Amino acid sequence: MSQINRIGGGRIDRSQVLNFSFDGKSYQGHPGDTLASALLANGVRLMGRGFKYHRPRGPLTAGSEEPNALVELRTGARQEPNTRATTAELFEGLQARSQNRWPSLAFDAMAVNDRLSRFFAAGFYYKTFMWPKAFWEKLYEPIIRRAAGLGSLTAQADPDEYDKGFLHTDLLVIGAGPSGLAAALTAGRAGAKVILADEDFVAGGRLNSETYAFGDGSGTDWAALAVAELAQMPNVRLMTRTTVIGAFDHGIYSALERVSDHLALPLPGKPRQILWRIYTKRSLLCAGALERPIAFENNDRPGIMLAGSLRSYVNRWAALPGKTVAVFTNNDNGLRTATDLISKGVNVAAVIDCRADTPDISGTETLRGAQVIDTSGRLGLASVTVQLADGNKRTIACDALGVSGGWNPNVHLTCHQRGRPRWDETLSAFVPDTCPPGMTVAGAANGQLSTAAALAAGTSGAVAALADIGVKAAPVDLPRTEDAAASVKAFWYVQHGKGRAWLDQQNDVTVKDVKLAHLEGYRSVEHLKRYTTLGMATDQGKTANMGGLAIMAELTGKSIPETGTTIYRPPYTPVPIAAFAGRSTGKGFRPTRLTPSHKWATEQGAVFVEVGMWLRAQWFPKPGETHWRQSVDREVLATRKSVGICDVTTLGKIDVQGTDAAEFLNRIYANPFGKLAVGKVRYGLMLREDGMVMDDGTTARLAEDHFITTTTTANAVGVFRHMEFCRQCLWPDLDVQIISTTEAWAQFSVAGPNARKLLEKIVDKDHDISNEAFPYMGCGEITVCGGLRARLFRISFSGELAYEIAVPTRYGDGLIRAMVEAGREFDAVVYGTEALGVMRIEKGHAAGNELNGTTSALNLGMGAMVSKKKDSIGSTLCQRDGMNRQDTLVLMGFRPVDPAQSFSAGSHFINKDAVANASNDQGYMTSVAYSPNLGHTIGLGLLRNGGARKGEIIKAVNPLKGIETDVEVVSAHFVDPEGERLRA
Amino acid sequence: MRYSGFRVIKEALTGHKGWTPAWRDPEPQSQYDIVVIGGGGHGLATAYYLAKEFNQKRIAVIEKGWIGSGNVGRNTTIIRSNYLLDGNEPFYEFSMKLWEGLEQDFNFNAMVSQRGVLNLCHSDAQRDAMTRRGNAMRLNGVDAELLDAEGVRKMAPFLNFDNARFPIKGGLLQPRGGTVRHDAVAWGYARGADSRGVDILQNCEVTGFRIENGKCLGVETSRGFIGAKKVGCAVAGSSGKVMSFAGMRLPIESHVLQAFVSEGLKPILPGVITYGAGHFYVSQSDKGGLVFGGDIDGYNSYAQRGNLPVVEDVCEGGMSLMPMIGRARLLRMWGGIMDMSMDGSPIIDRTGIDGLYFNGGWCYGGFKATPASGWCFAHLLATDAPHPTATAYRFDRFRKGLMIDEKGMGAQPNLH
Amino acid sequence: MIINHPLLGPRDSQEFTYLGDAGLIERPDWQAEDAADAFYEYLYLRDNPAGLHKELWYHEQGDRSWLVVTRNISSHEIISVELARDVARQKGRSK
Predict the structure, then answer these.
(1) For the domain A885-984, what is the CATH superfamily, name and number?
(2) Contacts of residue B11 in chain A, CB cutoff 8 Å?
(3) Is the whole-model pTM more than 0.90?
(4) Which residue in A73, A221, A485, B361 is deepest, having the highest Cβ count within 10 Å?
(5) What are the pLDDT digits (tens) for A27-73?
(6) Is B345 left (phi over 0), alpha (psi -120 to 50) or beta?
(7) CB distance A650 to A762 below 8 Å
(8) Which ipTM did the prediction report?
(9) Any bridge partners for residue A348, and if so which?
(10) Which residues of chain A are within 8 Å of residue C92 when distances are taken between CB atoms?
């Protein structure tokens, strides 16, 4: 297939041919092409369908503001919906498909909507589909959902990688057109650190699309020279294919670099895209301006595009949107399209200018005071109908029409911190007003629409921005170039005709829709937007919004600035969700913390479980065990019978030192710590200031001024933060220092009747750990395995004779291996978190399920522990009446009346004869386990007035599973309630 | 004017000339019986129910900007009644029931779509907590189903089951949960209220209260003094600011919550899905966009915009949970100001000032509450007694120690 | 946001954990007559101003300093950053 509409010139590399396909049909283009320019060169104008009426559409623009030419790019898991053909770089083998049409782009059955469009006016769906009620979800909505949407996802995981990067700079220049290049040269030569970012793959901006004289050469040449000079500067980072997407607080900008999107596949080891976070002292916005259309009847046919974009296709890409072209403009800039095309020998049928004083253009006819009032052509433009100044109509055959309604400075980023632009009457456009701190604007983005003005503003803008941060820079010499004053006559839409004139082509919003919104009272620009969906498409209304609000202003009799704009929000152009996630996906979503015994446990075939960031061994299956319960029961029974070992490193450990350390602990724990003897451990109950239990743990006193405090695994970080708060903010002069040592020590629980015997084989002989010398709740610094320093705590979570032994983390692996070896003669087991949980429930210890942030000490049966003789966090507010009611929830034990029955955590309690409903709710089961020692299910739970109800039979109801179980209220201590084993 | 399919057809055939404004644009009167401050969902619903259900007259809603410009116009549109605690669940279920009949009631299609809300769990402890919550719902007569991992896979096979940092262990499904077209809620209530004589006064900013001898006599506004026998304040994120005019300090902080929408896509998500191991919840709008959100930014803010860390955190959660969305593009992000209360639950109560009533503290759950909040606030304004489902939403619950703390986070608003 | 840490210089706010109003430094006297009320107001009530706000940030992924940041919460502009310990001492807190 030949490139029938390819002409001479342009910035494409004709030495290489790139093969690509669109809707399965093969075409050829060249490096430097976008998908849109290559399709136009091949004579393809039809690239998409409108969202609502499915009308045929071609590209309106040549850039990222494109509303129409959206395609599904690539195939398989790399398929990406809604890619703008106008920015997608062509690569060998590119495959693209049109979207939101059936069965084909040329014949779309849904185009019937266009015939019925009068029934689909703005907001029609708010007024109907309400009867019968059930039909909305069953009938109407599914139809609407299927018809809506644009491209599709494949439901496959994205296979590409995305990186994040961080950059620091003095000046971020956003946009590498004339003003941006001049600014970067200025700042670069002054030695400042500069980042110059542009969304395009070639720097130069409009210079690459224009033909006017630029010094002694062309704008393109000057841009290339500027780029070459900047590339030599070590202090300048030139980033093409990089869109600055948002301006965030305190000089932080986010930018997306498309590293690999111009390739068939990312190069090995390279990401698809990088999301940069740029910290800059100053930024200079040189984002140029966006041309705006004029609305007229049937202004949406393929072949009708913005005049400047049409010029870009011809000048930059040597692609002709049509053989015979017309131009419709209200400003001089639009005339350039005609002169450029004529100079290239293209047939320009006419220039239609709504102004009366347009100069003659040689080579075509100028129709002054004229307007395009209609067009024809089913799948592409065939002719335009013009109403002449004298009122006569004339039809002009053409297959492309360039439309220019003037240019809107690209103020987007200036408004990301809720600044609002200012109306400039001369330009008939909004220009930047209040910018985010540290941002200034130069060039067309600031309303300086001539090239000479843009260049000058770029260099002076850079000088000023750098002066602000103490860097002296000199303006650079600039070439002479066009300096035409803006000449525009505000002209938003052609009033003639009864048909539809499009404002928002993607969302199919017409001038009539704006009028309807006005009629129905949706007159605020935000109501207009939300009611008609104007500006809510993937282009965020970059070409559409201005016309809509101008028409609303006219209808309400208010001025345009009084009417105002909707809010500009990041991102400037849409960003793949994967780019924001970077590498924090899959297994890498969050860091994984491994315990010191992890390697050993892996060798044993342990099953692991996520506990916060930690991965802990859940149980250790032995050969022949086919169900997890077999493993867990064995671990529990063996521990209670002889001895078991468990890695408890994950518990938070906080080292507390200082002469006021005891006083500090006294204040952060509800129970007293002042009199804890050296060499002793005490259980501590920590409350939040609101009196609810925050955490619990043990605190060991190693010396007068040295304590080791433990926290639960879940709360390790939060408790430490809280302690720092208390230390720094509440009692800044207490002599106390704290540091987290969770990761510094490997800690193991050794529990069971033979725990001491096992440890005696490990602990060096000069440390006496007999019951007399090292009683229950004792602690001390010892050595193990021939001189390795260690800490030993005689504490028990299981209810057995138990110790926790800690060694520096790097010896944790060695210690577990040594203990397993030493335990062989006792048939020692290593147990996981499941067995740990079973044993703590058997013993009636509260844990995470009970410490759920809504339980008080009273609820947990520990009300008496809260000292009223001292001030501690939470001691005042825990006395509030509402937390001390007689019928308050109290932690109790529960057993099935029929031992063969079981129940689940999360069951609610209902009195035996009461109906199971919310008003009869008596509490809930917090933790449940099968006790291999008792041979039945046991539970802990919070029961109203539980302390007084021991022996009562109630129901544990689980409506989710349809189960009700009769349970007896018992003590929470199922095993060894007297605590004799602990002290053995 | 009554909306219907016939009306749409009739107007279509006659050039859409017969439509009338959905609400009037009246001048403020000098005196009303009841003034509701705040033309958001809650304020408009309050006015609507005051007029319709409580037979009140001479009502005005006053709004600083355009109606629906607050959180009702900037949320992730989710409705659900899957609450745990006694103080909350009956209220939210009341709201759900109102949603279910809302469109016929106010004659406006708000696209109430009960496609289900699925909360995922990733640990045994989460499943236990979910079981407790699901059972609490069932005991309140509310629909709830507990799914295991296979059940979740059947509903949403595109979730990350194979390479997850935190594997999906199951989920709690409320089939009646879903989404509603948020702007339409504001418009439907506004139109319904207006047609019953309520004056909706836009571009009318409250600048103070006129309080004499402990009684509120009306509000000072940018459009002059407006007298009222009763004044109700329903201004969400601006609660602290407005109530400070009455000298009140509230158990509320204002925080920014961001929300996000992708480009339009063909239907791929069945209902609402929330991640249990990261801050991410998502649904797909009728128009095709993935509408999603996560945690609040975490710092006090009135700025209606957020920052990058949370944007990235939310997308990390999304990609971890459903890696198929990687190539969908995030189109737009915005921020709303949440009235984060000290226990994560709202307040609908009298104040210490006679004639001044307060509705706020909705945290980031206010949208789903809109109908019941309006009804219950109307009940309080009209009868001076709390509605039976809102008796716990009192100011003094903090003083008394009767917090309604679903998440168990205590008096730290940014954690609720 | 960027917080200019008094000891470490400018840091991304992402390194910090936020607590809330710096009034939380001023914990009441538990033995005062009105301790119940004072603690209620201390813990639960907020000025929540739409302007300058003194607030507590904790440098969790840094040096563990608690900071008092004065920030305009309508614009996010940061006016000053102090060590919370210094602020606490200025408010008369000691041991």
Answers:
(1) Aminomethyltransferase beta-barrel domains (2.40.30.110)
(2) 121
(3) yes
(4) B361
(5) 999 999 999 999 999 999 999 999 999 999 999 999 999 999 999 99
(6) beta
(7) no
(8) 0.99
(9) A325
(10) none
